[in-house]
Write a structure and sequence with these properties.
The protein has 9 helices and no strands. It has about 190 residues and is mainly α. The protein has one domain. α2 packs antiparallel against α3, α3 packs antiparallel against α4 and α7 packs antiparallel against α8. The longest helix has 28 residues. The two termini are about 15 Å apart.
């Protein structure tokens, strides 16, 4: 459910874009909507939990920066680059944490939910970093090789689908390394 909540602004972006026949008008309207939707998402998270995750703050900041540049300069390339920048910043955080910190970032995020050997945490952290690099690169490939309609569809269906597939694949990988008592608790 959390994954779907995280993709809520992207869904609104997609729907808004689809309401316009003109690609340029559609991308500008959708950009305004994603800025507002992301602000609402972060506000809702704050009111509900009284705390914000770094991912939401980074995403909000980049949506405002790239979205504002798109709207002010009327250049859709800024909003199209935003997913790549977000993904590559997350990749950097994961990969740097694996080298410079005593515990990789993925372990800090998930260690309260499961116990894994150090080597598995390192592999998992590397997998997430690599996944985010790949997602950022795929976004740029679509931006520069396809039209805006294709990019908007990829942004919703492609990125979401690949993320879900990655999480499912990671779950199968983790199941091999979990203890029987951890599996029975679920």
């Amino acid at each position: 459910m959390k994954l779907l909540f995280d993709f809520f602004p992207i869904l609104l972006f997609f729907i808004t874009y689809q309401l316009y026949e003109d690609q340029h008008e559609g991308i500008l309207a959708a950009t305004a909507v994603i800025i507002v939707a992301t602000l609402i998402q972060v506000a809702w998270t704050w009111f509900r939990n009284r705390r914000l995750e770094t991912v939401h703050l980074v995403t909000l900041g980049l949506v405002i920066i790239f979205g504002s540049a798109t709207l002010l300069l009327k250049d859709e390339m800024f909003i199209k680059w935003k997913p790549t920048v977000v993904n590559w910043l997350f990749a950097a955080a994961f990969l740097i944490s694996g080298v410079l910190m005593d515990k990789p970032l993925i372990r800090r995020m998930m260690q309260g939910n499961l116990e894994l050997p150090d080597e598995i945490w390192k592999r998992l952290n590397l997998a997430w970093g690599s996944f985010f690099i790949l997602m950022g690169g795929l976004n740029l490939y679509v931006v520069y090789h396809f039209d805006t309609d294709t990019w908007v569809n990829f942004k919703l269906f492609g990125l979401l689908g690949l993320t879900i597939a990655f999480v499912v694949g990671q779950s199968f990988y983790l199941m091999r390394h979990m203890k029987d008592d951890e599996l029975s608790e679920e």
